[in-house]
## 1
Amino acid sequence: MNFHTRKWVKPEDLNPNGTLFGGSLLRWIDEEAAIYAICQLDNQRVVTKFISEINFVSSARQGDIIELGMKATHFGRTSITLRAEVRNKITRKSILTIEKMVFVNLGADGVPAPHGRECIRYADEAYERYRQTVQTSADATAVAAANEAQRQADNEDTSVH
Ligand SMILES: CC(C)(COP(=O)(O)OP(=O)(O)OC[C@H]1O[C@@H](n2cnc3c(N)ncnc32)[C@H](O)[C@@H]1OP(=O)(O)O)[C@@H](O)C(=O)NCCC(=O)NCCS
């Protein structure tokens, strides 16, 4: 499981008991899980479909630094299932676990669409894909510029004759 995101528990995140408010934590988790799903499925149009039992294992206090962890546990046809855990960054004590968070991949029409993914992809692979895309479009731009230069040269030749 990768713990990418750290949060610092601040006064505005507390409940009247002086510990981390569950609603704040769930908002952070849902956002973190959505970002994870977006990166895995390469699609910004993903929505939360299902969240299983949430186990608030222990509390966090003001000033604590906590970290949010995600791992894809299942790739369906249009969905992805994640497991989530939040823990104290320093003590590693578990704060929350969610066994199952299901996100659905949508098409431009807002209807579930197959995502074609089968296994976890890592950040380096995403960067490599991005680099290749940029390289490919740079190549295409270079070819188009060369063609345009050639076309202009041909026109100039025509006007000379
Ligand atoms: C997401 C939504 C489009 C899915 O519609 P749907 O009619 O349930 O779609 P489907 O029946 O085709 O199911 C889509 C996928 O979700 C899965 N799914 C549906 N209900 C599920 C449930 N209760 N638990 C787990 N997975 C579920 C299906 O198994 C399917 O996955 P697969 O293709 O990998 O097998 C629709 O339910 C919706 O718009 N929900 C609201 C989403 C939302 O607003 N979320 C909060 C804000 S992000």
Note: Residues 93 and 145 are 58 Å apart (CA to CA).
## 2
Amino acid sequence: MKYYNNILETIGNTPLIKLNNIFKDFPCEVFAKVESFNPGNSVKDRMALKMIEDAEKSGLIKPGGTIVEGTSGNTGMGLALASIVKGYKLICVSNDKQSKEKLDVLRAMGAEVIVCPTDVPADDPKSYYSVSRKIAEETPNSWYVNQYDNPSNTKAHYENTGPEIWGQTEGKITHFVVGVGTGGTISGVGRFLKEKNKSVKIWGIDTYGSEARIQLNDKFGTIDEVGAFVLAERAAKREELQNVLTTALKVDSDTKMGIISDIKQELRKVNALKINYTTRVGDYTQNFN
Ligand SMILES: Cc1ncc(COP(=O)(O)O)c(C=O)c1O
């Protein structure tokens, strides 16, 4: 019999899919590493599992314990899958910018979800940063994940995502373009690829207003959220990536596309590129619901 022992074993080894239409006039091959093939539908499954497993190894989380995290949803999904399999309780602290559907799915997966206001500074006691910390402090036998500062986040991508990409491209990758949230993916994959070939370019794309800046990357672009949707919508319609289409339909096409044309300019000069912007979609599209 060929089977997985549990859902967590299906995390990773996501497909690399050639984008045939969007880049057809370009003198290079462009591939999407479609992270929505993960069981929790995003790249975050990888780090969620790794953070929990490392916390188990170092004794930070004990059997029957409670996991607490501030999350807009995707890390929460990964944590929820692992919590079910491993028997932990999960408390997700989120904010009122997130769609009801996203939070409902987390609740359906057994998580307790607490919603905090977005229009307060991070150090306000009502902010979701402060609330998640406080809950972790006050809940017995609990562990605060803290994905932004947790080194296992980056490690998951250094140990898994990076080697997958290197193997799938047979070392031919020249550019890695990636959406940035915590910076775990860009740091882990970037470090791995640079160790293999220091001339591989690492490009991060972030939304306006974010402060992420990572040393490893060679180029950092900003994109507005709607711009990210447009890119996703194009991928969905023109490359038949249906799982992207379902979250990208509510796009206003009248949007800033500066960064995309910038990337296109750069693309014309290169031979190959990898994009994983589809992973970014889950995070942003649903805010428009
Ligand atoms: C679906 C999705 N893709 C990509 C990212 C960004 O990844 P990272 O946090 O590793 O920078 C996030 C989170 O911010 C996400 O939820």
Note: Residues 44-144 form a domain with the Rossmann fold fold (CATH 3.40.50.1100).
## 3
Amino acid sequence: MVYVDAHCHLGSHQFDSDRDEVITRMLTARVHKAIMICCNEHDLKEGIRLRNEHPGFRLAYGIHPQSLETDSTPDLFEKFRNRVIECQPDMIGEIGLDYFSHCHTKDIQKEFFVRQLKLAQQMNLPVDIHNRKASADTLEILKQYPVRGIIHSYSGSVEMAMLYIRLGYYISFGASVLFANARKPAEVIRAVPLERILIETDAPYQSPIRDHRHEPADVVRIYSAIAQIKEIPSAELMQTVSDNFDNVFHPGSF
Ligand SMILES: [Zn+2]
């Protein structure tokens, strides 16, 4: 049985000096399935290489709302689309809306979000959704453009999680469940059916330890916390999350 890291930036420059060691630690910890989120050319190149080497690694490519801050030129989407056709990612992501960071106007963000959702529909690809302080608009847009996928690093309410699930989405939980005062994530994890749960690090980001680089191997700790909250054996959690991961990439499952 293997662990899944449903959202990590393995191609990130933060892993350039020791990526092989990071992957060795990951595989030693039995994290054999992963979604590598690539939002720039550097990460994408690394991601393509790693996908060829590791059969359990999936490639996600998307225009992150935060990238729009530095580049929202008119041909950005066309360039992205051509690159998608060339490199055939397994998923479009991460994409979405970020009203917390300063990522360009809401209108521009929505425009790129919708164009990428439409591309995912055309190519029959799942999506990985980034939402920060933009739940109402995110949900509204996802309702209009139905596609299967994952809500990354979920931190919303039980009610909102249920609305996403009704649209067919998986809810992915990260390291926030590890904090001692993590009452809200625990409540959501109890409510979300096991068949809809995914688990992620968002490495190198979102480490539970301040100023520490997060790694895919660290996902094991998040599994333990979730198994405890769900009051189920870790083997059951591992098996179901691994099946959920496979279902995301199986077009017939939605
Ligand atoms: Zn991320």
Note: The domain at 3-207+240-249 is CATH 3.20.20.140 (TIM Barrel).
